[in-house]
C-alpha cells in the first residue's frame, strides 16, 4: 500500500491570516517559556530550602555533640536569627543537652 499522502491543496493565506497564526504561535511559545522559568524558580527555591534544612540539622547535631562549641558560637549566631525565632533555636539546643 502506498503511504505517501497527496499534499493538501490549501488556499494561500492572506498576510493578515499568516500574521495572526504567527502571533498565536508566539503567544503559545511565550506561555511555555514563562512556565519553564516558573518551574526553574520553584526548583531553585526547593534546593535552597533543602540546603538550609540540611545545614541547620548538621549544625544542631554538632552543637548537641559539642556543647562547649555551642556556648561559644551561639552569642555570635543569635543576632543573625530573627528575633521571633530565637526562643525556638535556644529551646532546640537545650533539648539536646
List keywords for this structure.
97 residues; mainly alpha; 3 helices; 77% helix; rod-shaped
Summed up:
The chain is built from 3 helices and no strands. It has 97 residues and is mainly alpha-helical.
Commentary on this structure:
- It is a single chain.
- This protein is mainly alpha-helical.
- The chain has one domain.
- 77% of the residues lie in helices and 0% in strands.
- The chain has helices spanning 15-65, 67-77, 83-95.
- The longest helix is centred in the middle third of the chain and has 51 residues, at 15-65.
- The radius of gyration is 30 Å and the shape is rod-shaped.
- The mean pLDDT is 90.
* Topology as a string of helices (H) and strands (E): HHH
Query: How many discrete structural domains?
Result: 1
Q: Helix- and strand-based class?
A: mainly alpha
The beta-strand count equals 0
Rg calculated over all Cα atoms: 30 Å
Please state the oligomeric state of the protein chains shown: single chain
Q: Report the sheet with the most strands, covering strand number, pairing sense and barrel closure.
A: none
End-to-end Cα distance, whole Å, is 82 Å
Uncertain runs: none
Q: What percent of residues adopt helix (DSSP H or I)? A: over 70%
The portion of residues forming beta strands comes to under 5%
Compute the number of helices: 3
Average pLDDT for all residues: 90
Q: What general outline do the C-alpha atoms trace? A: rod-shaped
